[in-house]
Design a protein that fits this description.
Layout lengths: L2 H14 L3 H8 E9 L5 E2 L1 H13 L1 E14 L2 E12 L3 E14 L2 E9 L3
Parallel strand pairs: 1-6
Antiparallel strand pairs: 1-2, 3-4, 4-5, 5-6
Length: 117
C-alpha cells in the first residue's frame, strides 16, 4: 500500500468514527474548496471547520458506512451510506459519493454528490 493510500485510509477511518473535526484539522488544506451537490462552495479552512462544527452540533448520527473507495494519484473517491437525524432537516438516510483532490497530504478540493429524495 502506498503512503497516499494509507493517508486516505486514515482519513476515512476518522470519518467512520465520527471524528469530523479531527479529520478537518489533520487532512484539509487552508484553501479547501468543498461543495455539496450544486450548492455554493465553502471556501477556506476556517469557514469549512465552522460548517463541520455546525453539522456535528445539529446532527445525531446513527450510521456512517464506507461502502467502497477508489484511490489514484492525487484523487480519492468514497461511497458512503449515511443515516442521521439533523435538527433542521429531520431524519436522513442516503448514499453519497465524495470526491477529494489531494496535494501534499491535504485535501484541497472536495465534492459531495447525493440525492435526499
Amino acid at each position: 500500500m502506498t503512503k497516499f493510500e494509507n493517508t486516505v485510509k486514515e482519513f476515512n477511518s476518522l470519518v467512520q468514527q465520527f471524528k469530523f473535526i479531527q479529520a478537518v484539522d489533520k487532512f484539509y488544506d487552508q484553501n479547501i474548496i468543498s461543495t455539496d451537490n450544486n450548492n455554493e462552495p465553502t471556501k477556506g479552512l476556517e469557514n469549512f471547520r465552522k460548517a463541520v462544527e455546525n453539522f456535528t452540533a445539529n446532527s445525531e448520527i446513527e450510521k456512517l458506512e464506507l461502502i467502497s473507495t477508489i484511490v489514484d494519484k492525487d484523487l480519492s473517491v468514497a461511497h458512503w451510506h449515511y443515516i442521521f437525524t439533523n435538527k433542521n432537516f429531520g431524519r436522513l438516510d442516503y448514499k453519497q459519493i465524495s470526491v477529494q483532490r489531494w496535494k501534499d497530504g491535504k485535501i484541497v478540493q472536495e465534492n459531495h454528490f447525493y440525492n435526499l429524495f
